[in-house]
Specification:
The protein is of the alpha/beta class. It has 9 helices and 7 strands; from the N terminus they run H-E-H-E-H-E-H-H-E-E-H-E-H-H-H-E.
Length: 166
Amino acid sequence: MQLLRTVRDHGPEGAWIAAGFVRNAVWDALHGYSEPTPLSDIDVLYFDTSCLDAEADFAWEQRLQEVCPDVPWSVRNQARMHLRNSDSPYRNCGGAMCRWPEVCTAVAVRLRDESLELLAPLGIDDLWGLQVQPTEHFRAKPHIYRERIAAKNWLARWPKLRIESL
């Protein structure tokens, strides 16, 4: 909750915390783990078509770092990510998330006042069902999906997962 409050109060307007932050917490709970899995970064998403400069993301990271210095923030404006990914422009954060590698990772949360808001454009069934499968976008990129699954080595931490192979 502290990280969600930090992003709400000091991050880009309307920002979400996504990907491993949500996915790992759910998988840890479903595996009965009392200690959270360490994260290599905290993915913060926002959508601002008025500023597509990567330097703005780094400025947000620095601002969040000032508030929570021990957190590895990774802030990305999803309005510019289509350029990096050679896609058509995204319309919002949910549209960008649909282009992520796995369905179970395309989940984000944020605080509105003190209530949690969930963004899951591809649903939460895979996440709660411990199912890992590629998004439709990554079905056309099976080599990248396979490399990512191998690199993440999720089964070592979460043995109940069912990972679709391509």
